[in-house]
Amino acid sequence: MSISRIEAAFAKCANADHSAFVAYMMAGDPDLAQSRELLMGLPDAGADIVELGMPFSDPVAEGPTIQQAAQRSLLARTKMQDVLELAADFREAHSDTPLILMGYANPVHHMGWSKFARLAAKSGVDGLIIVDLPPEESHPLAVALADNDIALIRLIAPTTKGVRLQQVLSGVSGFVYYVSITGVTGAAIPDQQQVAKAVKDIKLHTGLPVAVGFGVRDPQTAKTIADCADGVVVGSAIVSQMHKQGAGSALELVKKLAEAAHGNI
Amino acid sequence: MTDNPWNNTPDAEGRFGGFGGRFIPETLMPLVLELEGAWQEAKTDPDFIAQMHGLLKDYVGRPSAVYHAMRLSEHFNGAKIWFKRDELNHTGAHKINNCLGQVLLARRMGKTRIIAETGAGQHGVATATVAARFGLECVVFMGSKDIERQKPNVFRMKLLGAKIIPVTSGTGTLKDAMNEALRDWVTHVDKTFYVIGTAAGPHPYPQMVRDLQSVIGREARAQIIEREGRLPDACVACIGGGSNAIGLFYPFLNDKSVRLIGVEAAGRGLQSNEHAASLTGGEPGILHGNRTYLLQDDDGQIADAHSISAGLDYPGIGPEHSYLHDIGRAEYLSATDEEALDAFQLCTRLEGIIPALEPAHALARVGDLAKELGQDGLILMNMCGRGDKDVFAVAEHLGVEL
Predict the structure, then answer these.
(1) What is the mean pLDDT of residues B120-133?
(2) Is the minimum CB–CB distance between A107 and chain B shorter than 8 Å?
(3) Which of A29, A191, A255, B358 can bridge A73 by disulfide, Cβ–Cβ 3.0-4.6 Å?
């Protein structure tokens, strides 16, 4: 079911002639109950795909907003088991919306690649993004995920070029995540022309949908990026709104972002 | 750089057995692959080697001496103790051996901006020094807690023209400084060269740092044979990330009779949960680009390290040490804050050498070892840094107001 759930979600958006809106949030920020409220509301607010962040103590690719969210989550004693239970709750309430877990290698490695893949499948998880696990290091996890019909989503960066681009794109599943800037999450505004060209280059090597994220933080940018990609990911802006104003306000923002990504502004 | 058969480690993927590798975001992968190629080329280029050796001699002051610590040997009433005196290097520690090589490589690769992380400040000072020597922009990331306890080094770096970025995320120590340096590198990929200070990080760093630091062991091995007519029974070095230790150990790896002993920081004691002994108290995990032993909790979150010595205050260890530990080629012991403070004072009084707190940890185990080996024994310890930077911290711990 899992990988096909991702395919179905992108197909549905393509049929409606718009991009998919991918909403990122941090599990357990500021605590499990409040993050559950946000998570549960995302599909109705317009998120076509949900990325649930797994907190890690040393997130090297994150800007301050998501770093601090991870710290708040860990201070509230969020465990990997809690993240998986949150995922299971989500799956029970929302049967169609793909759920992607996103995080860093060590907590998954510590649990064991295979055990994690089994438990994630049991919780209804469809895909996994591990930021610090490039293709060269991902083989054992990729095998475990494939056995459980979970997509290992690969990241492509602006620095990924030429032969390497082909290498990274061979054997991808689910969708391709294009990192729109050289930098940490939420740091800079991506350049639309550069992103459009990169997405075109990626599509020369894969038939999978391409979602773009890392620097998208307002409806206007979401719309601009949505115009040149199959999906647009927003993280830091949602996490920041959640921190400042709570789940209700964060869901309002998600609505605006989703409308923009869907071309309705 | 070496005819040592061990130089088939790491393998092409940067693995030392099951340790090492390249666990980094995709944005950095093309950069480390380029770096790997550049290093393999540079280290066999006679011009590059000649330039480096010239500067090691005239600028750093190599070869550093070996010294028979006669009064300490008498004090312990056991084996003969020799120091490899890398504390006599320019900038006061072994760190510059590595910085010099990496900055020369940065120039060769056309990079104009140097970044570094630092804990005790020794690596930051060494990097800032070499950057100043070549007129390169230099940015040093340093934990806010370390800035507080290493003020003299912070000022030295500023004098050398480096920009210091205080890191407040996490616990404000070395691991957080490394996180922040990696974030900077991801952001400024085009002109930046990240000079990692220890034998850790993504491949090729553990190998490159080992190659550059093994000048310590190559010199020491020849010197001790010349002076004593034989190999030592044991080589001893302190371990934070482990660059001075791997530099000393590497040229001795094939000398099976030589015990290689690394000393980790046990902080307030291994049972206290306030220590930095990754091998003794940690388990394998993934951080800062490599798989290695790490201090972590039962959910894979990285634990805080503690040591009186800022240079050892790191929850990981270079991957080659994890490998040498697992295959049993090297032994890893630990010393507490208290033991290091005692050794610091003992060495200062008996030998007139003020050691850095880092090698004071190694010295704390040398006493036991000297007794164990007895009068016929021969110990070679790397005195990898001098203690000028630590006098304020030591005074505070001894309750002395300066």
Answers:
(1) 96
(2) yes
(3) A29
Query: Active site residue: A7, A51, A137, A259, which one?
Result: A51
Q: Give the confidence band of B393 by pLDDT, cuts at 50, 70, 90.
A: confident
Which residues, including other chains, have CB under 8 Å from residue A84's CB and lie 6 or more apart? A119, A120, A122, A123, A125
Q: How far apart are the first and last CA of chain B?
A: 46
| A107 closest CB neighbour out of B29, B31, B299 | B299
B359 Cα to chain A: minimum distance (Å): 28
Quote the number of domains for chain A. 1
Q: How far apart are CA B399 and CA A171, in angstroms?
A: 62
Cβ-defined contact of B26 to A154 (cutoff 8 Å): yes
- The count of residues in chain A is 265
Cβ contact, residue pair B186, A79, below 8 Å: no
Sheet holding A210-213, edge to edge: A151-152, A127-130, A99-103, A49-53, A20-26, A231-234, A210-213, A176-179, A154-156
**Catalytic residue check, A51:** yes
Residue A136 to residue B29, Cβ atoms within 8 A: yes
pLDDT in tens, B209-255: 999 999 999 999 999 999 999 999 999 999 999 999 999 999 999 99
Q: Where are the domains of chain B?
A: 15-57+94-209, 63-92+216-397
- Report the amino acid identity of residue A235: G
B294 vs A: CB within 8 A: yes
In angstroms, what separates the C-alpha of A259 from chain B's closest C-alpha? 30
Identical fold between B15-57+94-209 and B63-92+216-397: yes
Q: Which residues from chain A sit within 8 angstroms of residue B291, using beta carbons?
A: 109
ipTM of the complex: 0.96
The DSSP secondary structure of B30-86, one letter per residue, reads HHHHHHHHHHHHHTT-HHHHHHHHHHIIIII-PSPPEEE-HHHHHHHTSSEEEEE-G
- Partners of residue B26 in chain A, C-beta under 8 Å: 134, 154-157, 159-160, 168, 179
The range of the structural domain enclosing residue A35 comes to 2-261
Of A61, A71, A106, the CB nearest to B296: A106
Q: What are phi and psi of B236, to 5 degrees?
A: -125, 135
The closest of A158, A64, A117 to B169, measured between CA atoms, is: A64
- Would an 8 Å CB–CB cutoff place B278 in contact with chain A? no
Chain A residue with CA closest to B286: the answer is A106
When the candidates are 3.20.110.10, 3.40.50.10300, 3.40.309.10, 3.40.50.1100, the CATH number that belongs to B63-92+216-397 is 3.40.50.1100
The Cα B375–Cα B233 span in angstroms is: 12
* CATH classification code of B15-57+94-209: 3.40.50.1100
Å between B368 CA and nearest CA of chain A: 36
Q: Is B355 helix (H, G, I), strand (E, B) or coil?
A: strand
Of all residues in chain B, the percent with pLDDT exceeding 90 is 91
Q: How far apart are CA B244 and CA B198, in angstroms?
A: 8
Q: Cβ of A85 under 8 Å from any chain B Cβ?
A: no
CB A53 within 8 A of CB A70: yes
Instruction: Give the sheet arrangement for strand B234-239, strand by strand.
Output: B66-68, B80-84, B378-382, B234-239, B259-267, B330-336
Burial bucket for residue B326 (CB in 10 Å: 0-12, 13-18, 19+): middle
> What pLDDT score was predicted for residue B310?
84
CA-CA distance, B118 to B307, in Å (whole number)?
15
- Which residues on adjacent β-strands are paired with residue B165? B141
Within 8 A of A214 by CB-CB distance, chain B residues are none
Residue B318 to chain A, least CA–CA distance (Å): 16
